[in-house]
Amino acid sequence: MATPDQQNRRTFLKTFIKIGLIFLAFISGIISLVFLYPSEIRKRELKFFYAIKEEDLPRRGVKRIELAYESNQKAGSFRAFLINNGGKIFALSSVCSHLGCLVEWSRNNNMFACPCHGGKYDIEGRIIAGPPAFPLERIPMKIRNGKVYLGLKV
Amino acid sequence: MESGDRGDKRLYPDYMSEILIVIFFSLGLVVLLSLLFPPPLGREISFFSAYQPAPEWYFLWLYQLVRYFSGQWAFIGNIIVPLSSLALLLSIPFIDHGTKVSRNMAIAAFALLFGSFLVLTLFPLIRI
Amino acid sequence: MGKAFDWIYSRFGIKESHKGLLKRTIPGNVNYSYCLGGMAFIFYCTLLISGMLLSSYYIPSEKEAFQSVVRIMRVANLGLLIRAIHKWTANLLMLSILLHTLRVFANKAYRPPRELNWIAGAFTLVLSFASGFTGYLLPWDQKAYWATVVGTNMIATIPLIGNSLLLLVRGGPEVTGFTLVRFYSLHVIWFPLLMNLLLWAHFHMIRKQGISGGL
Q1: Largest alpha-carbon pair distance within chain A?
Q2: Among A37-41, B65-69, B119-123, C138-142, whose mean pLDDT is lowest?
Q3: Complex-level ipTM
Q4: What is the DSSP secondary-structure string of C54-113?
Q5: Which numeric CATH code is attached to C32-209?
Q6: Is the peptide bond before B13 cis (omega within 30 degrees of 0)?
C-alpha cells in the first residue's frame, strides 16, 4: 500500500508530466512555425525600368509589353499593358486583382478578361463583372528623353 | 460473398483471397488507365501568357465556388464555406443521435454536402 | 509458414499478439460495396510506392524540377508508366474515398461507438485533398504554377492573418522555388506520415469495434 506521501508524490508527478508534455508540444510548435516563416521579406521598393521607346507607345487602344529585368542580382519578368485611351496614356498591371491570374485584352469586347474566374475590367482597369474586389493596378510611368520607364515594386 | 450467404468466415484464408481479387482488380484498373491515358506534362512556366489553370476534378467545386463570391465577400467563398462544410461533415455523427428525425437531418446534411459537391463539380465540366 | 518465418516469429513474438488478426471472422453479410475503403487503402499503398520511386528521380528545385519530370517521362525506364500510375491512382483514391464515405453514411456506420472513426476518415479525406494540391505543383509546369498561384492567393483573403499565412505557405511573397521545396516536403514527408497515423487509427478502431454489419 502506498502511503499518503507517496500518493501525493504520484499526483504531483502526474500533473508534472501532463503540463510538461503540453509545454513541450507548445514550444516545439512555436519553434517550428518561427523556423518555417520566411526570414527575408525584403521591403519592396519602387524601381523604374526601361520598357519601350516613346514612339512605340500605342496611338490608340492597348499594347501588351513583356519585359525581363534584373534587380539585386535577381532576374524577374513583368507583363503589363500600355494604354492610350483617347489621349490619356497610362500603364496597367496584367495581374488580376482577384486571385492573381494574368488578364488578357479582348479587342472585340473592349475589356480585360481574366481566364480563371471570369473577372472583367474596362479599358481604365475598372471592374465590370466577376469576383475581383479591386481594379487593375496602375503602374507608375515616366517618360524621359523619348524613353518610357515603368515603376515596379521589386 | 453472395448476399444470401450469412455464414461468417475467417479472414485468413477465406476473406483474404477475396481481398486479393479486389487488389488485382484495382491495380489492373490503374495500370490499364495509365497505359491508355498517360498524363501529359504541361508547357514550361511562362510569366507572359495568360493561362487558365484548370484544377484537378476534385478541386473543381472550389474553383466554381470562388466565382460566386465577389469583392469583399471572397473570404466567405474561399475559406468560410470550405471550412464549414468540413465542420458539417465532422458533425454528422452528432446530428444523428438515433431517432428517425435526427437521421433524416443527417441525411439532409450529407445530401447537401454531396449534392453541392456534385453540382459544383459538374457545372464547370459542362461549361468547359 | 516455412522455417525462416518461424525463426523470425519465435524471436519477434508477433505471432501471439497478432494471431487473432488472421483468425478473426468476418460477418457473412458484407458485400462488395464494403471493399471501397479497402480499395482506397490499396490505392494509397500504390501511391506510396510509386511516389517513393518517383522521388528518386525528381529534383525539387526551381531550375531543374521541370527537366527532371521530363527525364522521368522520356529517359527513365518505365518512367512514363510509373508517373501515370501515380497520377491515376491519386484520382482513383479520391474517387474511392468519396464512394466509401457514401457507403459508410448509407450504412449508418458513423453511429456510436464509431463517431471518432468517422472523424478520422473525414481527416484522411482532407489530407488527400491537401496531398493532391501540393502534388499538383511539383511538375513545375504552366498548369501547376498558375493553379498554385490561384490556390495560395485564396489564403490571403483571410482577414488579419491572411498575408502572414500566405508568406508561411509560399515561403515568400511569390510562388518561387521556395514554395516548390515547401510543397515537396509537405507532399512527401508531412502528409504521408500524418496519413499513416490516421489510417492506423482508422483500422485500429475498425478492429476494436468490428465491421458494422447490420442494416
Answers
A1: 98
A2: A37-41
A3: 0.89
A4: HHTT---STTTHHHHHHHHHHTSTTHHHHHHHHHHHHHHHHHHHHHHHHHHHHTTTTSTT
A5: 1.20.810.10
A6: yes
Q: Where are the domains of chain B?
A: 57-122
Domain residue extents for chain C: 32-209
Distance from CA of B127 to the nearest CA of C (A): 19
Minimal C-alpha gap between C170 and chain A (Å)? 9
Yes or no, beta carbons of C105 and B42 under 8 Å apart: no
Which is nearest to B41 in space by CA: C65, C91, C90? Answer: C65
Task: Please give the interface size between A and C, counted as residue pairs whose CB atoms are below 8 Å apart.
Answer: 30
CB contact under 8 A, B54 and C143: yes
- C7-59: pLDDT as tens digits: 877 787 765 666 666 667 777 667 777 889 999 999 999 999 999 999 999 99
If we measure between CA atoms, which residue out of C92, C88, C79, C89 comes closest to residue C53?
C79
pTM: 0.90
Closest CA to B44 of A66, C64, C136: C64
- Contact at CB, B67 and A130, closer than 8 angstroms: yes
Task: Write phi, then psi, for A91 (nearest 5 degrees).
Answer: -120, 140
Bond prior to B39 in cis (omega within 30° of 0): no
- Provide, as residue numbers in chain C, all residues whose Cβ is less than 8 Å from the Cβ of B106: 105
pLDDT in tens, B88-106: 999 999 999 889 999 999 9
Q: How many CB pairs under 8 A join B and C?
A: 166
Q: Does B42 contact C139 at a Cβ distance shorter than 8 Å?
A: yes
CB contact under 8 A, C144 and B66: no
